[in-house]
């Protein structure tokens, strides 16, 4: 059995009460977890994050990780991993800017003082503002969100946007080449028909790529969380 590296245990009572930032747990999700555990009411017996993940899925597990765990080490390290997956999007625009990378390192630094954490986070926020591209800004913000749920969702969004843009660029290049060749051959009607069909195809391809990237990012996040919880290596 793999030894757990993190304190990943909470209680039903803590989950039910939530936190001042999150409010109480969603009633439907809470009842689902109760049934999974074979219980009818909250108590103070240990509940692992892996049990929540197995019962309710990734979103509810990330909510528990973000708001009702006894310490923030696992959440910080998971946020760092999420930010690392999309860091290349930010660094493609600002390759010499290390502020977001420094923030990721800070999230993994378990001995850092509060003042150092705040300074690194502020610097990464400034880096996000300095980026001109919307995707680069979003990629930088993954590292500065205050909870794991927002970091994960934001990283999924960045992955989807990047995949959508790449698919669109590829389809657009193909569209321009095919249309230009038809136009050169004076096949104007064929060119117009090809343009309309290719345009629709490019839009569909970009959305398909976005959806696939979102699913892949989400699956990767769940797999990483399970690894961090010691389920497998």
Describe the structure.
The protein has 233 residues and is mainly alpha-helical. The protein folds into three domains: 9-67, no CATH class; 73-141, no CATH class; 149-228. Helix content is 73%, strand content 3%. Strands 1-2 form a two-stranded antiparallel ribbon. Helix 3 runs antiparallel to helix 4 and helix 5 runs parallel beside helix 9. The relative contact order is 0.12.
Which band does the percent of strand residues land in?
under 5%
Strand order of the largest sheet: 1-2
**Runs with pLDDT <50, length 5+?**
none
What is the rounded distance between the termini? 11 Å
Elements, N to C (H/E): EHHEHHHHHHHH
Basic shape? flat
The biggest beta sheet is recorded as: 2 strands, antiparallel
Summed up, the domain count is: 3
| Helical coverage, percent range | over 70%
Summarize the structure.
The chain is mainly α.
Please tag this protein with its features.
3 domains, flat, 233 residues, mainly alpha, two-stranded antiparallel ribbon, single chain
